[in-house]
């Protein structure tokens, strides 16, 4: 089994630590050796999105130096992973080892499929769930095929959810529309970002969703703020949380059955 370095983005560590825990526990359940290197830093994406990519070099260098020893680096954030893998190369042109380390970064869903472990996640979770396909996950990491393209290719995150007993996946009219977060876009274009988010939420509500999930907690953070502010009957959960809770529920049922017998 490969040795995995667990990458937890700064906003998840600060605001949604349960997502980091669920990611760790899910990978551990699959049998992987996992380490969480201390002194991780921001990947630099907020600075880069605001036009200050060069100023993020020290942060990126420190982050990558923490993961050089691992076979893979796995994180629950498609946008941060994509930024590290694709946008930091120009900052590290004189440091080949760190450039190589950047290529080890994989989103949680990517990693599960790269190791052909998607069928090993079995569990139970009760709920009507809508999958929010983040722009970075769908259009950059290619976790599925965009709705405007011909042909059918099932979304990898949907595959994981479909094999969990008790889950009913509901589909909005506009299958992969942006939620309007866009990092600093939500700050500089607040009104437009909010309108896009509310449109997205209404589409999910019209589809009958009870829970909204995604592989990008940044999108869910934006949407959850709108949900709470407008008192909407929706709950947000990262994909890792649902999968780990489903596995736990299944394991508990098996143990209970064995005890009764």
From TrEMBL:
InterPro entries: Cys_rich_dom. Pfam families: CCG. Residues 5-85, 129-224 form the Cysteine-rich domain. PANTHER family: LACTATE UTILIZATION PROTEIN A, UNCHARACTERIZED PROTEIN YKGE. This is (Fe-S)-binding protein. It comes from Algivirga pacifica.
